[in-house]
């Protein structure tokens, strides 16, 4: 009898499922205890609930936000992922207000945000790839172009695109990169450096009046690839004019036309597009190509500004080749971060 009593006492006081369940119940009681019997939990927080619904609608219907006034639609799409920061704020306020209505409403924007960007939170990088590429807006006011060039070359990229080159700095970049890249071409303010032969090099007219885009064929060991380098016009946020991007949008359309006319099946676009993949104004380009970051990156891969990256406006977009991995490189003397990707050119296997 004594042994049986001992076993029963031990079983009841053990650490089995029943004890864990009781701990969970106590925790739940602490959280919900003050709310029980309070009929106002459904009437409080209606404003918070309305804000949650508006947030969900903005994210869900961002493509319907008009650009007629200050290009507000494009501005919203540029920083669209950051709207998710409002979700935990609304959640905390819902708890503070003890509002069941607000807490339930917050679920909707959370689901919408995860549907839009949840895939970027996972690491999709692979281990393959037979061609590494990189692109970097080096900044015309870069205080040390030589170090910046060496930093980019140290990435191990086979092909490197540089944007915002000044005529005074070009010789410095050429000298710093000569030991790593046998072939290169500079067209206006953009340039392409390659370990493999270049041919068919020409500027691309993006309706600016001067050259900020180029095209070249790179003959890799796995075959020919058409490379485009582009630096689309900058955009500005002005109090009196909103998000001014008309020239950027016009240049994006011209670049999209050039890519659509490209005879080679394999295409890589490197450059500073001054816009994100969510920005509808870049549809002429983004509708034809895949983002390496979206297909094979980890996280959002924000590249600008370098001191506190908030948007990925430096892009590596591809067609006819397979992205294996995509990443940002360490900060240089520029206000942009370099971005790189590993590609599989031979997709026959």
What's the structural blueprint in terms of helices and strands?
Blueprint: H1 2-12, H2 17-32, H3 46-60, H4 72-78, H5 86-96, H6 100-117, E1 131-137, H7 145-153, E2 159-163, H8 170-177, E3 183-187, E4 190-194, E5 198-203, E6 213-220, E7 223-231, E8 236-238, E9 242-244, H9 246-260, E10 267-272, H10 283-286, E11 290-291, H11 292-296, E12 314-319, E13 322-328, E14 339-344
Parallel strand pairs: 1-2, 7-10
Antiparallel strand pairs: 1-14, 2-4, 3-4, 5-6, 6-7, 8-9, 10-12, 11-12, 13-14
Helix pairs in contact: 3-5, 3-6, 5-6, 7-8
How does this model look, in words?
It is built from eleven helices and 14 strands. α5 (86-96) packs antiparallel against α6 (100-117). The strands form three sheets. Strands 3-4-2-1-14-13 form a six-stranded mixed sheet. It is an alpha+beta fold and 349 residues long. Mean pLDDT is 89; it is low at 5-11. β6 and β7 form a beta hairpin. The longest helix has 18 residues, at 100-117.
How would you classify the quaternary structure? single chain
In round numbers, the mean pLDDT is 89
Strand content: 15-25%
Q: What general outline do the C-alpha atoms trace? A: elongated
Q: How do the strands of the widest beta sheet line up side by side?
A: 3-4-2-1-14-13
User: How many alpha or pi helices?
Assistant: 11
**Largest sheet: number of strands, sense, barrel closure:** 6 strands, mixed
Stretches where pLDDT is under 50 for at least 5 consecutive residues are 5-11
State Rg.
27 Å
- Helix and strand content put the structural class at alpha+beta
The total of beta strands comes to: 14
Portion of residues within helices: 25-40%
Distance between the termini: 73 Å
| Helix/strand order | HHHHHHEHEHEEEEEEEHEHEHEEE
């Amino acid at each position: 009898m004594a042994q049986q009593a001992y076993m029963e006492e031990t079983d009841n006081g053990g650490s089995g499922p029943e004890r864990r369940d009781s701990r969970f119940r106590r925790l739940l009681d602490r959280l919900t205890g003050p709310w029980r019997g309070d009929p106002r939990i459904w009437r409080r927080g209606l404003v918070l609930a309305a804000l949650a619904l508006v947030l969900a609608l903005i994210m869900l219907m961002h493509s319907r936000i008009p650009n007629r006034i200050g290009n507000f639609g494009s501005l919203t799409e540029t920083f669209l992922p950051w709207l998710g920061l409002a979700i935990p704020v609304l959640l905390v306020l819902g708890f503070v207000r003890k509002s069941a209505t607000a807490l339930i409403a917050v679920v909707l924007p959370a689901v919408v945000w995860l549907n839009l960007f949840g895939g970027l939170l996972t690491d999709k990088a692979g281990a393959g790839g037979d061609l590494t590429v990189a692109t970097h807006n080096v900044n015309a006011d870069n205080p040390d172009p030589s170090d910046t060039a060496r930093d980019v070359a140290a990435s191990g990229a086979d092909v490197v695109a540089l944007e915002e080159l000044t005529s005074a700095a070009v010789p410095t970049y050429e000298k710093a990169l000569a030991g790593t890249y046998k072939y290169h071409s500079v067209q206006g303010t953009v340039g392409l450096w390659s370990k493999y032969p270049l041919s068919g090099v020409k500027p691309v007219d993006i309706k600016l009046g001067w050259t900020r885009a180029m095209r070249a064929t790179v003959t890799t060991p796995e075959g020919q690839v058409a490379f485009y380098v582009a630096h689309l016009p900058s955009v500005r946020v002005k109090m009196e004019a909103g998000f001014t991007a008309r020239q950027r949008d016009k240049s994006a359309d011209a670049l999209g036309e050039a890519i659509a006319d490209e005879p080679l099946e394999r295409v890589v676009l490197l450059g500073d597009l001054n816009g994100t993949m969510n920005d509808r104004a870049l549809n002429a380009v983004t509708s034809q190509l895949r983002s390496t970051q979206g297909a094979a990156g980890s996280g959002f891969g924000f590249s600008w500004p370098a001191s506190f990256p908030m948007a990925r406006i430096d892009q590596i977009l591809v067609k006819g080749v397979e992205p294996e991995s995509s990443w940002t490189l360490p900060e240089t003397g520029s206000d942009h971060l370099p971005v790189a990707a590993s590609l599989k050119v031979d997709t026959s296997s």
